[in-house]
Design a protein that fits this description.
The complex is a heterodimer of chains A (about 475) and B (about 450).
Chain A lengths: L4 E12 L38 H13 L3 E2 L2 E2 L1 E5 L9 E5 L5 E10 L3 E14 L3 E7 L2 E5 L6 E7 L6 H17 L12 E11 L9 E6 L2 H20 L8 E5 L4 E4 L12 E2 L6 E2 L2 H9 L5 H12 L3 H8 L2 H12 L4 H19 L7 H12 L5 H14 L3 H8 L7 H14 L1 H8 L5 H12 L6 H13 L1
Parallel strand pairs in A: 12-13
Antiparallel strand pairs in A: 1-10, 1-11, 2-6, 3-16, 4-5, 4-15, 6-7, 7-10, 8-9, 11-12, 13-14
Helix pairs in contact in A: 1-4, 2-3, 5-6, 7-8, 7-9, 9-10, 10-11, 12-14, 12-15, 14-15
Chain B lengths: L3 H17 L10 H14 L10 E5 L26 H8 L3 E6 L33 H8 L5 E6 L5 H7 L2 E4 L19 E6 L2 H11 L28 E5 L9 H16 L3 E5 L7 H16 L18 H12 L2 H14 L5 H23 L4 E5 L15 H6 L5 H6 L3 E9 L2 E8 L5 H14 L7
Parallel strand pairs in B: 1-2, 1-3, 6-7, 6-8
Antiparallel strand pairs in B: 3-5, 4-5, 4-9, 8-10, 9-10
The chains are: A alpha+beta (about 475), B alpha/beta (about 450).
Chain lengths: ~475, ~450
Amino acid sequence: MAVGWETVIGLETHVQLRTASKMFCGCSAAFGAPPNTNVCPVCLGLPGALPMPNEQALKLAARAALGLGCTVHPRSVFARKNYFYPDLPKGYQISQFEQPLATAGSLSYLSPDRGVATATIQRLHVEEDAGKSLHDRFPKQTAIDLNRCGVPLIEIVTGPDFRSPQEARTYLLTLKQVLEYAGISDCDMEKGSLRVDANVSVRRAGETALGTKTEVKNINSFAYVEKALTVERDRQIAVLEGGGTVAPQTMLYDSKTNGVRPQRSKEESHDYRYFPDPDLPPLVLSEQFIAEQQTLLPELPAKKRERFVEKYALSVTDAAVLTADRSVADYYEAVVHAGADAKIAANWVMTEVLADAKDHGDGLRVPPGALANLIGLVRGGTVSHQAAKRVFAEVAERGGEPRNVAEALGVMQVADTGVLASWVGEVLTAHPAEVARYKNGEAKLVQFFLGQVMKVSRGKADPKLAQRVLEEKLTS
Amino acid sequence: MSDPSDALASAKAAADRIVRLKRLNACLTPIKELRKSLTVQASTAHPSGVLYGMPVAVKDNICTLEFTTSCGSKILEGYRSPYEATAVAKLKAAGALIAGKTNCDEFGMGSSTEHSAYGRSFHPFDKTRVPGGSSGGSAALVGAGAVPAALGSETGGSVRQPASLCGVVGIKPTYGRVSRYGLVAFGSSLDQIGVLGRSVHDAARVLSVISGRDPRDSTCEERDSLRLPNVPESLQGFVIGVPKEYFPQDLDPAVRRACDRAIRLLRELGAAVREVSLPHTAYAIATYYIIAPAEASSNLARYDGARYGPRFNGSEDVRALYRTTRGEGFGPEVRRRVLIGTYVLSSGYYDAYYRKAQQMRALIAQDFRNVFDRGVDLLFTPTTPTPAFKAGEKLNDPVAMYLSDIFTVTANLAGLPAISLPIGRIKGLPIGGQLIGQAFLEDEMLEAAYALERAVPAGEEA
């Protein structure tokens, strides 16, 4: 990036709410059904049909707003956004305009440049999705799939708060984490359940007024967020440095070429003619409804991270890894509650548990109680740390109690001083030169002897006891 | 009636009468299809229903499974709804027979039924005149005695105005009293299904059946269906207001005479009658002709030829498809209102028109509340400024046409129930008087209407 320029980015994120049915009718909101099968007179916009709001969607939307620190308004208004498009069967989208569900929230995220930064959430509103136009299904014809039509969405609009494409991406990942935590959405960009448009402008460092912005659309994967914004930022800087001006237009990102092109002017410049939807009375949410959504909100990642640092004496980095996913965080806490040392449990979860989950993709396979027991075996000297990894893998694969599995694998450590003494004797006899050097003062050779004992015992010797026996024998 | 053979006989007789009245162009359903359907309906109707065997015609903008629903428009020619309106389902559940679809102004936009793609309907007593509109087909069929009752719909008077012109009773219930599910939307915040009937009782019992909550319409009130009042002995205790704004200097003298007679009769029945004022009345037509077209421009956006209804030539790309389908599929009055509505909602004009109209609407509603708060139970006004006018007379003067709704639009703007009933004849043509009630107090309004109906010599010259 050219020196002396500042980037300013704001994001509009559409998130599909995790409901069984659509926003205004009883049709399934599931992804992937055969085209035009999840439809009814309401979502098809047939003459005379009327919308009925989905209460579960309103609950999730309110919960999302509360999770983002917004004020949820006791009265908001559904509005019609009018435009013609074949996959918009009513000729308007039911959305919210002048009076959105929620305003004035914020979300803190870890900026790669500035440390903890805060994005303002200007508004959060509820709307229905449009259908899908498929231009490549039939030659020279457009096919329309209305399954997605009427699926519930929330739109989350930030202020112009990001100073780099990296920040925008980090915010988005943080947002995704919050929404997944609270069970609002599965946030799958590939399935379209999270979509993002960005407003981008640049200005000379030190300027306070905003430059002319463009809107970047068609960013359809997390991987492209940073790329698309970087490309557009660089394009704007090049235009301005070349003495030109940035046109306020919509740019479409093309991931194949990693470039942006302006949307044809015919496709934009809509006057949406918003007005309150007369089919839907103002949305009135009682204090009790809003309070209930607040109580149904789980502890969110930032809060949980802080608590983990405080309560379990973990580093911020470790706490961040453990709280990145709600199920992992819950798992970690269950291991600790089952009696494991918090720090050791953290190490286990961050290494073996996450690696296993990543390799097998079928969740956290070792029950938290079993892991706590395994950690106990290591701590009590019954199993070595190395052997414990084998036990973990075995429990993950086939289940079972760690102690039994360790026995079956023959990796229980030997703490019988008689047996240990015979192994020690064997080692000392085999290495007379080293014994002599030890006796001449090379005390650190004890580690060498210990290694040999472990080798002779094929890892079964309890290292602490073995060391004691060794030292006794060498000094006697 | 509770015998299936009676229901069949009733169905056949209704079909015969509709055939004899073909000249009215009031029923759009082909007669063979109508006969066949009525026979099937009569044999499957619920004998225990309160409307068992009663033929009820239905305006063509209300969805039925039995017949096409074209809304009097070419753009929905041959359209068959895969579902039926809640009001129609309730009628059928009560044993009524759906006696065909009635002609109307396209999508309910008009006051004469001349704006139908299927030709104009005729006044039952004078073929040179219009039956009013937009529910003109329903009014003409009831007025000519083909059916005892018919469903219509109102956005600005489309049940009461043709009822007045055809000499029948027309009820527009409180907004939210009857489900709009399946009523093809024109101006959603004003639309309400209403009933035209031979008598107050016929209209009221149909209204009672179709009223009540509906989980498919969130603007429909969470209330039980309307309970019918008894016919009162007198109107002792009723306070009836006569708003002076509804009796302007230039009111047709014959209409004034008919109203004066009705007011005298109301007094004789024991009601206290007092003059009241609704000061914002003068703004009602302008307000209405901003709000209704604004909503219509959005409600009618779905008719684009992409999914249902006919497509017209030159539909190569999607913009052309919209242009030709909407340009040729809609008639001139619908196009006019879509353009007006689009204009008043555009950015830069929204505040000056739509927002201002909403503010005025609130003031008009407040006028009524003020009067009712001062102890007035009901208001009495003329329904229409004139009896039935000549076909073609107002066709090229939209404002003159709009003014025929001058006494009716206020009840729609304020969401209040209102009824028109015949109160006399002017040179042989019927004229109606209107009672406007308080929200959800249809029962009081109907009591007064019952009493006035019994007292008034509706067949006599005013």
